[in-house]
TrEMBL record:
It comes from Thermoactinomyces mirandus. This is Hypoxanthine phosphoribosyltransferase. Residues 8-159 form the Phosphoribosyltransferase domain. Its EC number is 2.4.2.8. Its main location: cytoplasm.
Length: 179
C-alpha cells in the first residue's frame, strides 16, 4: 500500500494540527447553535471523526451517501441519494463535512437540497480544496488545505476503494492508475 504512493502531500502531524485549528474555529462560531454535522460518506469519515472530537460544544451527527450521475471522470452535477439523513433539518444549523471539493458539482447540489429542507443555515467544511478544477462557483466556508490538481489518496480518500486507511495524504504513483 505505502509503496504505491509517489509522495506525501500532507503528513499525519500536519493534518492533526489543522483539524485542531478547524475544531477551535467551528466551536467558536457554532456556540449555542447545536449544529448538525453531516458526514458525506465515505471519504469524509476520518475527517468527521477527528473534527468532532476537537469540537468543544454540543453537536449532533448524521450521515449521507450520494453518488453522482455521469461517467467515472466527469460528474454531471445530478446527484443520487444513496443514504439520506435520519433527522429533520428544519430550523437546524447544518455543517456539511467533506473530504475534498473538486468540480464542486456534488456539493452545490447538496447545499441546495438541504436549504430546500428549510435548514436555518447550511455551511461547508472540507479537509481539502482543489479550486483549479472548479466548474461551479462554490467556496467552502472552512477549508483545511488548498491543494494542486493531483489525484490524492489517504485520510479517507480512495482510488478504487483502496488507501482510505492511510494516516496521511499522498499522491498516487501514475503506474497504479495505468496497470
Ligand atoms: P465534485 O463534485 O466536487 O466531487 O467533483 C468531489 C468528489 O470527487 C472525488 N475526488 C477525489 N477522490 N482523490 C480522491 O480520492 C482526489 O484527488 C479526488 N478529487 C475528487 C471525491 O469523492 C469527492 O468527494
Ligand atoms: Mg466524497
Amino acid at each position: 500500500m505505502y509503496e504505491d504512493i509517489a509522495e506525501t502531500l500532507l503528513t499525519k502531524e500536519q493534518i492533526q494540527k489543522k483539524v485542531q485549528e478547524l475544531g477551535r474555529i467551528v466551536s467558536e462560531e457554532y456556540k449555542g447553535l447545536n449544529p448538525l454535522c453531516i458526514c458525506v460518506l465515505k471519504g469524509a469519515v476520518p475527517f468527521m471523526a477527528d473534527l468532532i472530537r476537537e469540537m468543544t460544544i454540543p453537536i449532533e451527527v448524521d450521515f449521507m451517501a450520494v453518488s453522482s450521475y455521469g461517467n467515472s471522470t466527469t460528474s454531471s452535477g445530478v446527484v443520487r441519494i444513496m443514504k439520506d439523513l435520519e433527522t429533520s433539518i428544519e430550523g437546524r444549523h447544518v455543517l456539511i463535512v467533506e473530504d475534498i471539493i473538486d468540480s464542486g458539482l456534488t456539493l452545490s447540489y447538496l447545499v441546495e437540497l438541504l436549504k430546500g429542507r428549510k435548514a436555518a443555515s447550511v455551511k461547508i467544511i472540507t479537509m481539502l480544496d482543489k479550486p483549479e478544477r472548479r466548474k461551479v462557483d462554490l467556496r467552502p466556508d472552512y477549508s483545511g488545505f488548498t491543494i494542486p490538481d493531483a489525484f490524492v489518496v489517504g485520510y479517507g480518500l480512495d482510488y478504487a476503494e483502496k488507501y482510505r486507511n492511510l494516516p496521511y495524504i499522498g499522491i498516487l504513483k501514475k503506474e497504479v492508475y495505468t496497470r
